[in-house]
Amino acid sequence: MKLTHRRKVALIVGIAALAMAITFVFPPLAQDLHYHDFADGREILGIPNFWNVVSNFPFVFVGLLGLHEMAGAPLKGALSELRLSYLYVFLGLLLVGIGSSYYHAHPSNATLLWDRMPLTIAFMGFVSALVGEHVSIPVGRRLLWPLLAVGLASVIYWYATETIGRGDLRLYFLVQFLPMGLIPLILLLFGSRLSKSGYIWAVLGAYTVAKILELEDRAVFDMLGGISGHSLKHLAAALGGYIIVAALRNRRPIEPALVAGRA
Predict the structure, then answer these.
(1) How far apart are the C-alpha atoms of 77 and 174, rounded to whole Å?
(2) What span, in angstroms and rounded, lies between the C-alpha atoms of 20 and 23?
(3) What percent of the chain has pLDDT over 70?
(4) Domains and their CATH numbers in the chain
(5) What are the residues whose beta carbons fall under 8 Å from the beta carbon of 188, sequence distance 6 or more?
(6) CB 57, CB 65: distance < 8 Å
(7) Residue 244 class from Cβ within 10 Å (0-12 exposed, 13-18 middle, 19+ buried)?
(8) N or C terminus: which one in the chain shows less Cβ crowding within 10 Å?
(9) Mind spelling out the 3-state secondary structure of 121-137?
(10) Residues 56-108: tens digit of each pLDDT
(11) Are 131 and 186 in contact (CB under 8 A)?
(12) Is the dihedral of CA 163, 167, 170, 173 positive or negative?
């Protein structure tokens, strides 16, 4: 049976609601302090954890590159109605480069706050834009502010609970991982208003590689003899941001009739 647009939306909303309900069945999860113990802690030029710090600089480059694209008019490979969503993606990436560098120079829960907040800005902007491109432009635009608010609130809530000794990462994990489960489903269920949707799959691929490298930080460091998984994680994630820039340059709008036929 072919699903109607309404039923597809209901499926996405239902999965999201179920995931939220399941998440809060589990007890609160505090930040593991061993998270701050990275494989490569070498100090170079007076900078602690040098390679984990400087590997964040590509985020700054990609963020500035994307903001430059946003300053141009008109947008060729994006939807002008979603300009603000794209802008927050690149503003978030720029701030990730700054916040994550600061965190890695002095790893702690207090500095991790400034790493995670810009990540949620970039991530929520991306989700808003994706919904607009695939599901509904007005819905994507209306979701931007609530998504940004929930994303930032998840980080602030985590940090506030850590300061009182009851750390709770559940909301932050939900904000980070639920969209990554829903985005492939959205791509499969809904036609895009823009050509070359392979760019979005490539962004997801870069994100997946980045998470694997993060989890295998020590193993990669030992295997490559001095290049850590976490440093490479930053490069893979920044590459994902650059793929978004490339998408904005190379995609083109699709006729509405063709989009309806693919949805």
Answers:
(1) 30
(2) 5
(3) 96
(4) 5-262 (1.20.1070)
(5) none
(6) no
(7) buried
(8) N
(9) HHHHHHHHHHHHHHCCH
(10) 999 999 999 999 988 877 788 899 999 999 999 999 999 999 999 999 999 99
(11) yes
(12) positive
